Amino acid sequence: MATDQQTTSDTDEFLKGLFAQNPVFVQVLGTCPTLAVTNSATNALAMGLATTFVLVMSNAAVSAIRNFVPKQVRIVSYILVISTFVTVVDYLIQAISLDLYKALGAFIALIVVNCIILGRAEAFASKNNVKRSVLDGAGMGVGFTIALFCLGSVRELVGKGSLFGLSLFGSHYQGWVIMILPAGGFFTLAAWLQFFNWRAQRRARAAAAAAPEVAR
Amino acid sequence: MSTSGHDRTFAHGVHPPECKDNTAALPIRQFPFAPVQVVPLLQHLGKPAIAEVQEGQEVTRGQRIARPDGFMSVAMHAPVTGVVERIALAPAISGRMEPAIFIRPFPGSTQEPLQGAPLDAGTATPAQILSAIQEAGVVGLGGAAFPTHAKLKIPDGKRADTLLINGAECEPYLTTDHRVMLEHAADVMAGIPFLLKATGVGRAIVCIEANKQDAAATMRQAIPPGLPVEVAVLPVKYPQGAEKMLITAMLGREVPSGGLPIDVGALCVNVATTAEIGHLLPRGAGIHERVLTLGGPGIVKKGNYRVPIGTPLRFLLETVGFERDITRVFLGGPMMGNAVSSLDIPVTKGTTAVIAFTARQTGNVEQQREYPCIRCGYCLDACPIFLNPSMLGLLGKNGEHQRMADEFHLMDCFECGSCTFVCPAHIPLVQHFRIAKRAVRKAKAAAK
Amino acid sequence: MLFLTAVAAIGGLAVVLATLLAVANRKLAVQEDPRIDAVEDMLPHANCGACGFPGCRPFAEAVVTGVAKPGKCSVSSDAGRAAIANYLGVDVGAEEKRVARLACAGGSNVARDHARYQGLESCAAAALVAGGGKGCFWGCLGLADCARACTFDAIHMNEHGLPVVDEAKCTACGDCVVACPKDLFSLHTISHRLWVACKSQAAGDGMLEDCQVGCTACGRCAMDAPGLITMQGNLPVVDYTKNHQTRTPIQRCPTGAIVWLDPDGPQKGPAAKKIIRKGVRRDAPT
Amino acid sequence: MSAFDKTLQIRSSPHILSGNSVDHIMFHVVLALLPAAAFACFAFGLTAVLTLLVAVGACVGIEHVLCVANRKPSTVGDWSAVITGLLYGLTLPPGLPLWMVAIGGGIAIVVGKLVFGGLGQNPFNPALVGRAILQAAFPVAMTTWPVAMAEGRFSGLPSSLLTLPFLTPRYDGVTAATPLSAWKFDHHLAGTSDLALGFTGGSLGETCALLIGLGGLYLAARRMLNWRIPVAILATVALFAGILHLSDPARFAGPLFHLFSGGLMLGAVFMATDMVGSPLTHLGSVIYGVVIGVLVVLIRVFGGMPEGVMYAILIGNALVPHLDNLLRPRVYGTRAGKGAKA
């Protein structure tokens, strides 16, 4: 099944990850980092970018080796590739900001088992050429980053009244502590999922109403 | 065994308003003949009887007009001296059209009932008694209309030790058994020897609820010397008259799930059925009329009447009078009775009462909106067989009929209506169960 | 030194794990006929059971093993059945399209109710309460159990509360046949155009009070088409093994209980009286 | 006689109902809550009146608005939203900013009840869900307790009550620890009679244990409350606390203190007995009550928080489906080894 899928344009390949197949809001993958590190916009963005880097690089590598690796050992190889890049990111963040590194903690290492990455490697990169795999990884990564930022900004805004650490509502704002706690992650994710489902349903209804009785 | 214990009863159950005062004191009155009596060939559980008369043939009151078709069937007798007008379909309470014999009474006839060869309880063999009961067309007059001879036939290897004469009459409004016990105590006592002989049982207990103390006293006095009969008074509770509940209340035994009373050595016969056997067998006659209560707020001349079998409900209501705002008529008590859609339905052997409700009574049932189940648990405390109606209702609503039967003992439900009666959310639980039971039976039949 | 240790560790792990994988691959491999998956993919995934199998996958297994013919799937299109037959290199086993037919025409405009049913909005529920209150004890109760049971959106209730089958969408899955508590539905090949739209065993004028379009058992259709139609009970029965492509039997029917099902609606004979009552009349005196 | 010319109605048996109904039960629960609510108003003055009004108003309002927005008939007529609002209001500390009261009420109805499908579907007590989320969101405001029976409570309002929405409240009046936190953190024991009669600080409904018990008796007498649950909870708490007290009276408070302090009475009588969230069977009810009772004492004595009734009941709620599934009633005629006798 190593045939390249050439039905969509390169741009679409990138854009699909942003909304139509957003890994968090549509595919509901990678919920562990989604819930754990989105208590502030900064953390969310950093986690998103780190994951994007790993996604792009691992997709490229997996795609490049797809024709050499036997089917039986492909998962082992993918994990090896992924964990290598995660280790690189781990060092990278440590070098950029130690505070950020401490805030993200174990979740950087846990990118290895983020099912978005292994999922894309298995579902896409192993069947497509390097260029399209990189685009797919970038799209998924940006989509993941957008989703994390959606959560992180809302949680920081409601929980602390600030964004990227900048206070927005003045010092008298009463922060909602629960939004910073893990429980707030669940509530916010649920609200966003609700919004995306509602949007999808409304579109489906509009499409059904626009199509003039095709079925008959 | 004590005969006055008030502690003997079953667990759970409900206390609906009794509503018996209106008719309990009224003696049984003979009802006139309708212009046409409609005698359905199927008035019992089992196979319909086979008509033995032709159109245009003259029949005498009490004459056999249909013979039983096999063991699970009983004979039919002419309710009136007259002429067979036609044999055609007539509406039945089941919602189907069933074949029936239409008899037009002779206006000038004396209407003297026909009698046959008498049977003596002392000399008859059990087989003779059973066949005589079948020939007399006797079925359970408490409402189920199960052929009595089939119930009394003890299966090989089984043995019964107690015969319960069921005079509980726990349904609201109903007073027929009460009046029969007061007015026909001798017939009841004459019937018991036949039943004991036929089944080989050593003792009989007449079970009466505590709201019929006068009947209990009358029955006690009527016990002839030497007859092993006791009278027991039970606390008032619905559904005490259900066979399983009565056995548990009196004997402390539980009929196994899916089993019969005989599995725990008990037999239950309705008191009116017993009286009928005691009346008919010594005369060699057959059932051609029965006692029923005409009651409910929609009826003007409420009372207990001896009504010829086959009297159409329309004639019944028009004779005793009805309120203008009558909205609902049902046969049997308000807890388990069946609503009728057509007044062309005739009175059959299983008709214990005709109750009519007016808009006032029906209003408080129908205008109650249905709420979601709030898990109050009232239904669990009401169900006499300890089901979980709350859960069953939920599954029924979702159409999970097979699961109801497999996991929650749906088929043990006998539709007494206690759960629906107490449900504050007004969920039609029993209706859900009926649909589910039917679906499960249908699926089972299809699988075979 | 660190570099060497790392290479040794990962390389050593690779050797051990590769051996493990090789063993697992040999011992635990499962073989299943891949054509079953392929055929299942080509089926409509309706799992309706019209083929006589519990669902699409068991049917696919049966087709692959040659137990059943692809044509048994009435839900799939002609092209779909042909594709499966082509893929497996077997014969389609063509069957004529069948549809569900309703043996009742007593909508609320022509049939009256004896009593007003109250309770759960379902035919199965109403049928258990004194038959549902409809004047005709055999007739359609109009509470749409069949329309709800239909997974193909092929049954819709018309303005008189009578279900209408969309022959184009009907796949003869039989769900409505099971759902109807009055057993009014049956499956027929689409060429059966001569149709008795009544199941009432009642006869004569008495039944006309309950339904204007019911069969009065007058027997004219049987007289006009001897051999093709026989009266059984109080209803005409069409023998579809005979030549039934004739409109003769409907000509003299006084109520229009026997009809010719044209694709654009049922055609009544010229003798059928016009329906006078037009409005919806759900309650009439008992 | 005249001829019969009517159309009959037909419906499935039974043809009579007991006359009880859901709104009837709910209304009586509201009635039973009124004495405790009235006492709260007496003890805390205008603050309590406003808090309860806003709590009930928020619950009823949001339920009505969401029903209408979803084009469904409004369900506020069944009184259940009023109960949620009243119970929720009674769990709040007096002086909590009204904007927080309103938000918590909305959360109680939306997250606690409507997302599960409305009345009858909610696994947890909605009032407690609202309070739990509020407690997690605003831990400081939710644990600041103005004193009861303060002077001038009927003439003025504490400034914290009228804090503008989304701003941090500032407290100007006298605040005090609740008896439970006083015991836990300062080892100060309040008198039993003060506790029972409600002359101590705490949430609105945590004060007068006797009036709550009275409401419970009223409902139990009308069979609108499963008495097994409060009895099991209170007995377990008394027993457990009593054993601890006997083992080390200096370290552990006595059973009476535990019974009458905090939200135990309100929780045991009105919250744990919420029909929707409690078990169907009698044995299940007792187990449920014992579990809650044990949890209450565990949290109070060994946990980090002074009060644990809320979490105990929520955990108890979570057990209910399993209790119902495990403890199915034994169906008539299925007793093992009880077959034919003859």
Most strands sheet of chain B: 6 strands, mixed
Determine Rg of chain C (CA atoms, Å).
Answer: 28 Å
CATH topology of the largest domain in chain C: Alpha-Beta Plaits
- CATH fold call of the domain at 21-26 and 133-283 in chain B: Rossmann fold
Low-confidence segments of chain C: 278-286
Q: Strand share of the residues of chain C?
A: 5-15%
User: Distance between termini of chain B?
Assistant: 48 Å
Fraction of residues in H or I helices of chain C: 25-40%
**Secondary structural class of chain B:** alpha/beta
The CATH architecture of the domain at 21-26 and 133-283 in chain B would be 3-Layer(aba) Sandwich
User: What is the CATH level 1 assignment of the domain at 21-26 and 133-283 in chain B?
Assistant: Alpha Beta
Q: Give average pLDDT of chain C, whole number.
A: 86
SSE sequence of chain C, one letter per element: HHHHEEHHEEHEEHHEEEE
Most extensive chain contact? B-D, 80 and 50 residues
Task: Walk me through the structure.
The complex is a heterotetramer of chains A (216), B (448), C (286) and D (342). Chain A is mainly α and 216 residues long. Chain A has helices spanning 10-15, 31-36, 41-65, 74-96, 98-104, 115-123, 130-160, 177-180, 182-210; strands at residues 162-163, 166-167. In chain A, α3 packs antiparallel against α7 and α4 (74-96) packs across α6 (115-123). Chain A is flat. Chain B starts with 20 loop residues before the first helix and ends with a helix. Chain B has a 6-stranded mixed β-sheet with strand order 1-14-13-17-15-16. With 448 residues, chain B is an alpha/beta fold. Chain C is 29% helix and 13% strand. The relative contact order of chain C is 0.12. Chain D has one domain: Ammonium transporter fold. Chain D has helices at 22-44, 46-69, 80-90, 98-110, 126-137, 179-186, 192-197, 209-221, 228-247, 255-260, 264-271, 282-302, 309-326; one strand spanning 8-10. Chains in contact: A-C, A-D, B-C, B-D, C-D. The interface between B and D is large, with 80 and 50 residues. β2 (115-117) of chain C pairs parallel with β1 of chain D, so a sheet runs across the interface.
